[in-house]
Write a structure and sequence with these properties.
This protein is of the alpha/beta class and 338 residues long. It is built from twelve helices and 15 strands. The protein is globular, with a radius of gyration of 19 Å.
C-alpha cells in the first residue's frame, strides 16, 4: 500500500458509518442538522451522516466556516452547508427544519482570562438551539470534564456520579447540559447528552500530542498519569447512534474507550513504533480525569478501533506526512485552566 493509500484509508476511518449508524438513522424521519459542524470533529461526523443517509435525506452542516477548506470538503461530499452566527437569534430562527439535530458548538481554549465568550457560547447558543428545535431529537456533545478527578484505579466516573466541574470551562459545559435539560423538560424534547473524553484521529488527540512530544524530544508530562481515548470515527458513530436513544429527561452517555490507559505506557508504545525513546517529567498523581463508558458499550457495542490500532494508525499518519492540527488537547491540565 502506498503512502497516499494509507493516508486515505485512515481518513476514511473517521467518517465511514457502518451498520450502527445506518440502522439508527434509518428509523428517523426527516432531515438532519449538525450545528458547529466546522470544527475538528464536525466535518467527519457530517460526512458520516451523509454517507449513511446516501441522499435519501438532507444533511445540513451549520457553522461560521472560518475554514473554507472544511466547507468545500463538506459540499463535495453531499452535505449542504449553512453559514450562521450562532449567537444571533434571528439567524438561528432561520435555520432549516430538521427531525434530528447534533449539537457540537462550544468554546474551550482561551477561557482562562477571557471566560465571558465561553459562557456565552456554551449556554446562550444552547438556549437558542433548544428553543428553535424543540420538536426535534437532539444529540448534544458535552465533556467528561464535568466530572471530578477520580482515583486512577476506579475505572472512571459513571453517569450516576454527581458532576463536580473543575474550572470555568468545565462549569460552562455543565451549564450547557442544564440549559438543554431545562428546555427538554419544558418542551418535551428528547435529548441525548454525550460526555466525551479525548477523541483522536491522526491530526490531533492525546496520542498525537504524545507523539509530537517524542519527535521533538520534549518530555511527556505524567501528572495526569491515566487517560481514556477513543478513535474519532467511533465517537462519531456513537454520537449519531445516540439520536435513537434520546429521551426526556435527557439520557447521559459517556463516550470514550474501554481502557484506563497509562500515559507512560502510551508514550513507550508510540516511541517504540517511532524508533525513539520518550523522556518524562513529573510523577503520576493518584487521580485523573476518567470516565466509565460501560453504558455506551451496552447501547452501541465496543469501539471498532482498539487501542493498539489507534497507536498504529496515529504513527502511520504522522510518518506518512498527514496534516496535523495545531489543537493540543492539554490532557495534562489538572486545574481546569484552558
Amino acid at each position: 500500500m502506498t503512502t497516499n493509500e494509507t493516508l486515505e484509508r485512515i481518513a476514511r476511518s473517521v467518517w465511514e458509518p457502518g451498520d450502527l449508524v445506518r440502522d439508527a438513522l434509518r428509523d428517523l424521519t426527516g432531515d438532519l442538522v449538525i450545528i458547529g459542524a466546522g470544527g475538528k470533529m464536525g466535518v467527519s461526523l457530517s460526512r458520516m451522516a451523509a454517507a449513511a443517509l446516501d441522499g435519501t435525506r438532507t444533511v445540513y452542516a451549520v457553522s461560521r466556516f472560518s475554514d473554507p477548506a472544511a466547507r468545500a470538503e463538506l459540499e463535495e461530499n453531499g452535505v449542504e452547508t449553512v453559514s450562521c452566527d450562532l449567537l444571533d437569534a434571528d439567524q438561528i430562527a432561520a435555520l432549516p427544519d430538521a427531525a434530528a439535530v447534533v449539537f457540537m458548538a462550544g468554546r474551550k481554549f482561551g477561557t482562562t482570562g477571557d471566560s465571558a465568550p465561553t459562557w456565552a457560547s456554551n449556554t446562550i447558543i444552547p438556549a437558542l438551539v433548544a428553543q428553535r428545535y424543540r420538536d426535534s431529537r437532539i444529540a448534544v456533545f458535552s465533556s467528561g470534564n464535568v466530572y471530578p478527578l477520580v482515583p486512577s484505579e476506579s475505572g472512571g466516573a459513571h453517569e450516576g456520579i454527581e458532576p463536580q466541574p473543575v474550572g470555568e470551562y468545565a462549569q460552562s459545559c455543565l451549564g450547557r447540559e442544564k440549559i438543554f435539560t431545562y428546555y427538554a423538560e419544558r418542551n418535551g424534547t428528547p435529548i441525548s447528552i454525550i460526555r466525551l473524553n479525548y477523541a483522536n484521529d491522526g491530526r490531533y488527540g492525546v496520542l498525537t500530542d504524545i507523539a509530537k512530544n517524542i519527535i521533538a524530544g520534549t518530555p511527556v508530562s505524567l501528572g495526569n498519569g491515566m487517560v481514556n481515548v477513543i478513535w474519532q470515527g467511533d465517537a462519531n458513530r456513537f454520537a449519531l447512534a445516540s439520536l435513537a436513544h434520546a429521551d426526556n429527561p435527557p439520557r447521559i452517555i459517556n463516550v470514550t474507550g474501554p481502557e484506563t490507559a497509562s500515559v507512560r505506557r502510551l508514550a513507550e508504545e508510540i516511541g517504540g513504533r517511532l524508533g525513539l525513546a520518550p523522556t518524562f517529567e513529573g510523577t503520576e498523581a493518584p487521580t485523573a480525569l476518567l470516565s466509565d463508558a460501560g453504558r455506551s458499550f451496552g447501547l452501541f457495542g465496543y469501539p471498532q478501533m482498539p487501542l493498539a490500532g489507534m497507536l498504529d494508525t496515529t504513527v502511520e499518519w504522522i510518518r506518512g506526512g498527514g496534516a496535523l492540527l495545531d489543537k493540543p488537547t492539554h490532557f495534562t491540565e489538572r486545574e481546569g485552566k484552558y
